[in-house]
């Protein structure tokens, strides 16, 4: 398994263990011509834990990466366990992150087409751990899930 997706899954599991929504993300610096990469920031959905309206997994990873030069974002890949919502899609576009690896989009299809239309490379891997995390959470806590997606 991709170690960066695994790190995002670990973040999602941490969020679930804290009583939150199991969505995790990592921002990885992947300079052109270099193999591998380095995690700049990692995070998970903390809306419940922090009482935040905006602290999705991707936003938490970006926040934890701290302030970075535009060049670094433009050489990075964002890994997320779930398809990005409109807010997180906006952040990806704002910071010109060129590549997004999505753990799964079966339980929720975010704005992947908008990302693609703006030149972002989006790869969906349909990871079974990601699917199970969200399927079980949506079944067990539908009220929290609906709140998270604005229903």
What can you see in these coordinates?
This protein is an alpha/beta fold. The chain has eight helices and five strands; from the N terminus they run αββαααβαβαβαα. It has helices at residues 3-17, 47-50, 57-65, 70-73, 86-94, 112-117, 128-140, 142-148, and strands at residues 24-29, 38-44, 76-80, 99-102, 121-124. Strand 1 (24-29) and strand 2 form a beta hairpin. Helix 7 packs across helix 8. The longest helix is centred in the first third of the chain and has 15 residues, at 3-17. The protein starts with a helix and ends with a helix.
- Strands in their spatial order, largest beta sheet: 2-1-3-4-5
Order of helices and strands: HEEHHHEHEHEHH
Count of individual beta strands: 5
Distance between the termini: 33 Å
Structural class: alpha/beta
User: Number of helical segments?
Assistant: 8
Runs in which pLDDT lies below 50 for 5 or more consecutive residues are: none
Mean pLDDT: 96
Q: What percent strand?
A: 15-25%
Residues in helices, as a percent range: 40-55%
| Major beta sheet summary | 5 strands, mixed
Whole-angstrom Rg: 14 Å
